[in-house]
Amino acid sequence: MEIVFLGTGGGRINLIKQIRGTGGFRIDSSSANIHVDPGPGALLSSLGYKEDPLGLDAIIVTHNHVDHFSDAMVMIEGMTNYGLKKRGIVIGSRTAMEGPDRSIHGYHQSKVDDAYSAVPGEKRTFKTEKGTFEIEIIGMKHEEETAFGFKLFLDGKVIGHITDTEPAEHLGKAFSGCDVLIINCMKPEADKYHGHLTTGDVIAVLKEARPAMCIITHMGLKMMKAGPAKEAEKIEKESGVKVLAAKDGLRFKV
User: Fold this and answer.
1) I need a surface site. Which of 81, 140, 146, 151 has the fewest CB within 10 A?
2) Which of 86, 90, 96 is nearest to 75 (CA)?
3) Domains of the chain
4) pLDDT, tens digit, for every residue of 48-75?
Protein backbone atom coordinates (compact mmCIF):
# COMPACT_ATOMS: atom_id res chain seq x y z
CA MET A 1 0.00 0.00 0.00
CA GLU A 2 1.24 3.48 -0.86
CA ILE A 3 -0.05 6.94 0.03
CA VAL A 4 0.78 9.58 -2.58
CA PHE A 5 0.48 13.26 -1.63
CA LEU A 6 -0.73 15.21 -4.67
CA GLY A 7 -0.85 18.50 -2.79
CA THR A 8 0.02 19.43 0.79
CA GLY A 9 -0.97 23.10 0.93
CA GLY A 10 -3.90 24.64 2.74
CA GLY A 11 -5.41 28.06 3.37
CA ARG A 12 -7.01 30.68 1.14
CA ILE A 13 -3.82 32.43 0.02
CA ASN A 14 -2.07 29.19 -0.86
CA LEU A 15 -5.21 28.07 -2.69
CA ILE A 16 -4.69 30.87 -5.23
CA LYS A 17 -0.92 31.18 -5.23
CA GLN A 18 -0.32 27.40 -5.24
CA ILE A 19 2.90 27.65 -3.25
CA ARG A 20 2.06 24.06 -2.43
CA GLY A 21 -0.44 22.04 -4.40
CA THR A 22 -4.02 21.42 -3.34
CA GLY A 23 -4.72 18.09 -5.04
CA GLY A 24 -5.33 16.03 -1.90
CA PHE A 25 -3.84 12.56 -1.56
CA ARG A 26 -4.30 9.12 -3.06
CA ILE A 27 -4.16 5.69 -1.44
CA ASP A 28 -3.09 2.92 -3.81
CA SER A 29 -3.69 -0.61 -2.61
CA SER A 30 -4.46 -4.03 -4.04
CA SER A 31 -8.17 -3.81 -3.21
CA ALA A 32 -8.80 -0.16 -4.07
CA ASN A 33 -7.21 3.05 -5.34
CA ILE A 34 -8.82 5.95 -3.49
CA HIS A 35 -8.42 9.71 -4.08
CA VAL A 36 -9.16 11.87 -1.02
CA ASP A 37 -10.19 15.52 -1.44
CA PRO A 38 -9.31 16.22 -5.09
CA GLY A 39 -9.03 19.99 -4.88
CA PRO A 40 -7.60 22.44 -7.44
CA GLY A 41 -4.87 20.81 -9.49
CA ALA A 42 -5.75 17.23 -8.57
CA LEU A 43 -6.00 16.09 -12.18
CA LEU A 44 -2.75 17.71 -13.32
CA SER A 45 -0.91 16.54 -10.20
CA SER A 46 -2.18 13.01 -10.74
CA LEU A 47 -0.88 13.01 -14.29
CA GLY A 48 2.38 14.66 -13.25
CA TYR A 49 3.05 12.04 -10.58
CA LYS A 50 1.92 9.22 -12.89
CA GLU A 51 -1.23 8.39 -10.90
CA ASP A 52 -3.75 7.38 -13.56
CA PRO A 53 -7.28 8.75 -12.91
CA LEU A 54 -8.68 5.82 -14.92
CA GLY A 55 -7.27 3.51 -12.25
CA LEU A 56 -9.34 4.99 -9.42
CA ASP A 57 -11.91 2.88 -7.58
CA ALA A 58 -13.22 5.51 -5.16
CA ILE A 59 -13.23 9.25 -4.50
CA ILE A 60 -13.78 10.80 -1.07
CA VAL A 61 -14.78 14.45 -0.52
CA THR A 62 -14.63 15.23 3.20
CA HIS A 63 -16.46 18.54 2.97
CA ASN A 64 -17.98 21.05 0.61
CA HIS A 65 -15.16 23.59 0.41
CA VAL A 66 -13.58 24.34 -2.95
CA ASP A 67 -10.04 23.37 -1.95
CA HIS A 68 -11.35 19.87 -1.26
CA PHE A 69 -13.77 19.28 -4.13
CA SER A 70 -12.99 21.40 -7.20
CA ASP A 71 -11.57 18.53 -9.29
CA ALA A 72 -13.92 15.84 -7.96
CA MET A 73 -16.17 15.66 -11.01
CA VAL A 74 -13.31 15.56 -13.51
CA MET A 75 -11.76 12.75 -11.46
CA ILE A 76 -15.11 10.95 -11.67
CA GLU A 77 -14.89 11.32 -15.45
CA GLY A 78 -11.57 9.51 -15.26
CA MET A 79 -12.74 6.83 -12.82
CA THR A 80 -15.69 6.04 -15.09
CA ASN A 81 -13.52 5.61 -18.21
CA TYR A 82 -14.21 9.09 -19.63
CA GLY A 83 -17.78 8.83 -18.38
CA LEU A 84 -18.50 5.85 -20.63
CA LYS A 85 -18.61 3.08 -18.00
CA LYS A 86 -20.69 3.09 -14.83
CA ARG A 87 -18.21 2.19 -12.10
CA GLY A 88 -16.57 3.32 -8.92
CA ILE A 89 -17.62 4.82 -5.61
CA VAL A 90 -18.08 8.41 -4.45
CA ILE A 91 -18.23 9.19 -0.75
CA GLY A 92 -18.96 12.78 0.16
CA SER A 93 -20.24 14.97 2.95
CA ARG A 94 -24.00 15.43 2.93
CA THR A 95 -23.65 19.04 1.77
CA ALA A 96 -21.33 17.98 -1.06
CA MET A 97 -23.74 15.27 -2.23
CA GLU A 98 -27.19 16.74 -1.59
CA GLY A 99 -29.10 20.01 -1.89
CA PRO A 100 -28.77 23.13 -4.02
CA ASP A 101 -25.13 23.85 -3.17
CA ARG A 102 -23.81 20.35 -3.74
CA SER A 103 -20.42 20.19 -5.42
CA ILE A 104 -20.88 16.72 -6.93
CA HIS A 105 -23.76 17.05 -9.38
CA GLY A 106 -26.46 14.47 -9.90
CA TYR A 107 -25.15 13.72 -13.38
CA HIS A 108 -21.78 12.63 -12.05
CA GLN A 109 -23.29 10.77 -9.12
CA SER A 110 -25.34 8.79 -11.66
CA LYS A 111 -22.14 7.66 -13.39
CA VAL A 112 -20.82 5.67 -10.40
CA ASP A 113 -21.90 2.36 -8.91
CA ASP A 114 -22.35 3.78 -5.42
CA ALA A 115 -22.80 7.41 -4.28
CA TYR A 116 -22.86 7.67 -0.49
CA SER A 117 -23.64 10.75 1.63
CA ALA A 118 -21.50 10.21 4.69
CA VAL A 119 -23.21 9.99 8.08
CA PRO A 120 -21.03 10.36 11.20
CA GLY A 121 -21.09 7.19 13.28
CA GLU A 122 -21.83 4.92 10.34
CA LYS A 123 -19.61 2.14 9.04
CA ARG A 124 -20.02 1.03 5.45
CA THR A 125 -18.36 -1.71 3.41
CA PHE A 126 -17.83 -1.11 -0.30
CA LYS A 127 -17.01 -3.61 -3.00
CA THR A 128 -14.66 -2.70 -5.82
CA GLU A 129 -13.61 -4.65 -8.90
CA LYS A 130 -10.54 -5.80 -6.99
CA GLY A 131 -11.77 -6.35 -3.44
CA THR A 132 -13.49 -4.56 -0.57
CA PHE A 133 -12.85 -1.81 1.97
CA GLU A 134 -14.69 -0.52 5.02
CA ILE A 135 -14.96 3.10 6.07
CA GLU A 136 -15.95 4.49 9.46
CA ILE A 137 -17.30 8.05 9.29
CA ILE A 138 -16.21 10.40 12.08
CA GLY A 139 -17.76 13.85 12.47
CA MET A 140 -15.65 17.00 12.46
CA LYS A 141 -16.24 20.42 14.03
CA HIS A 142 -16.02 22.76 11.07
CA GLU A 143 -17.74 25.64 9.31
CA GLU A 144 -19.08 23.05 6.86
CA GLU A 145 -21.25 21.30 9.41
CA THR A 146 -21.40 17.96 7.55
CA ALA A 147 -17.60 17.66 7.25
CA PHE A 148 -16.23 14.27 8.23
CA GLY A 149 -13.01 12.43 8.84
CA PHE A 150 -12.67 8.69 8.53
CA LYS A 151 -10.92 5.47 9.39
CA LEU A 152 -10.35 3.31 6.33
CA PHE A 153 -9.96 -0.45 6.78
CA LEU A 154 -8.14 -1.64 3.69
CA ASP A 155 -6.00 -4.71 3.02
CA GLY A 156 -5.25 -5.30 6.69
CA LYS A 157 -4.30 -1.68 7.43
CA VAL A 158 -6.16 1.16 9.14
CA ILE A 159 -5.65 4.58 7.56
CA GLY A 160 -7.17 7.50 9.45
CA HIS A 161 -7.74 11.02 8.22
CA ILE A 162 -8.62 14.11 10.24
CA THR A 163 -9.66 16.77 7.76
CA ASP A 164 -10.26 20.46 8.50
CA THR A 165 -11.71 20.83 11.99
CA GLU A 166 -11.52 22.79 15.19
CA PRO A 167 -10.18 20.93 18.22
CA ALA A 168 -12.73 18.47 19.59
CA GLU A 169 -12.58 16.17 22.59
CA HIS A 170 -13.63 13.06 20.68
CA LEU A 171 -10.82 13.10 18.11
CA GLY A 172 -8.15 11.27 20.09
CA LYS A 173 -10.34 8.35 21.08
CA ALA A 174 -12.14 8.17 17.73
CA PHE A 175 -8.88 7.83 15.79
CA SER A 176 -7.17 5.24 17.99
CA GLY A 177 -5.87 2.08 16.35
CA CYS A 178 -4.54 3.61 13.13
CA ASP A 179 -1.47 2.35 11.31
CA VAL A 180 -1.20 5.78 9.69
CA LEU A 181 -3.11 8.89 10.78
CA ILE A 182 -3.08 11.77 8.26
CA ILE A 183 -3.93 15.08 9.92
CA ASN A 184 -4.62 18.46 8.34
CA CYS A 185 -2.41 20.78 10.42
CA MET A 186 -2.90 24.29 9.09
CA LYS A 187 -0.96 26.42 11.56
CA PRO A 188 1.93 26.24 14.04
CA GLU A 189 -0.10 28.08 16.66
CA ALA A 190 -3.55 29.54 17.21
CA ASP A 191 -4.52 32.94 15.81
CA LYS A 192 -7.72 34.95 15.40
CA TYR A 193 -8.94 32.78 12.52
CA HIS A 194 -10.45 29.62 13.96
CA GLY A 195 -11.54 26.39 12.30
CA HIS A 196 -8.34 24.39 11.80
CA LEU A 197 -5.89 22.39 13.87
CA THR A 198 -2.55 23.73 15.06
CA THR A 199 0.66 21.98 16.10
CA GLY A 200 -0.50 21.96 19.73
CA ASP A 201 -3.88 20.51 18.78
CA VAL A 202 -2.21 17.68 16.86
CA ILE A 203 -0.01 16.89 19.86
CA ALA A 204 -3.11 16.57 22.04
CA VAL A 205 -4.82 14.24 19.55
CA LEU A 206 -1.76 12.00 19.18
CA LYS A 207 -1.24 11.61 22.90
CA GLU A 208 -4.59 9.82 23.01
CA ALA A 209 -4.89 8.28 19.53
CA ARG A 210 -1.37 6.75 19.53
CA PRO A 211 -1.15 5.77 15.84
CA ALA A 212 1.89 3.89 14.60
CA MET A 213 2.62 6.84 12.29
CA CYS A 214 1.27 10.37 11.80
CA ILE A 215 1.64 12.47 8.66
CA ILE A 216 0.73 16.17 8.74
CA THR A 217 -0.49 17.90 5.57
CA HIS A 218 -2.75 20.73 4.32
CA MET A 219 -0.38 23.37 5.67
CA GLY A 220 -0.93 27.12 5.46
CA LEU A 221 1.59 29.91 4.90
CA LYS A 222 2.39 30.35 8.59
CA MET A 223 3.14 26.64 8.88
CA MET A 224 5.36 26.79 5.81
CA LYS A 225 7.20 29.80 7.27
CA ALA A 226 7.67 28.05 10.61
CA GLY A 227 9.06 24.99 8.83
CA PRO A 228 6.86 21.88 8.54
CA ALA A 229 9.74 19.49 9.30
CA LYS A 230 10.58 21.49 12.42
CA GLU A 231 6.93 21.43 13.55
CA ALA A 232 6.72 17.68 12.86
CA GLU A 233 9.81 17.18 15.03
CA LYS A 234 8.16 19.16 17.82
CA ILE A 235 4.95 17.13 17.56
CA GLU A 236 6.91 13.87 17.62
CA LYS A 237 8.97 14.90 20.65
CA GLU A 238 5.97 16.03 22.70
CA SER A 239 3.52 13.27 21.67
CA GLY A 240 5.86 10.29 21.50
CA VAL A 241 4.41 9.36 18.09
CA LYS A 242 6.51 9.20 14.94
CA VAL A 243 5.54 12.19 12.74
CA LEU A 244 6.34 13.13 9.15
CA ALA A 245 5.57 16.43 7.41
CA ALA A 246 4.33 15.63 3.91
CA LYS A 247 5.69 17.32 0.80
CA ASP A 248 4.08 17.49 -2.63
CA GLY A 249 4.84 14.23 -4.42
CA LEU A 250 5.71 12.30 -1.25
CA ARG A 251 5.17 8.55 -1.60
CA PHE A 252 4.75 6.81 1.72
CA LYS A 253 4.71 3.03 1.82
CA VAL A 254 2.50 1.63 4.57
Assistant:
1) 81
2) 90
3) 2-246 (3.60.15.10)
4) 999 999 999 999 999 999 999 999 999 9
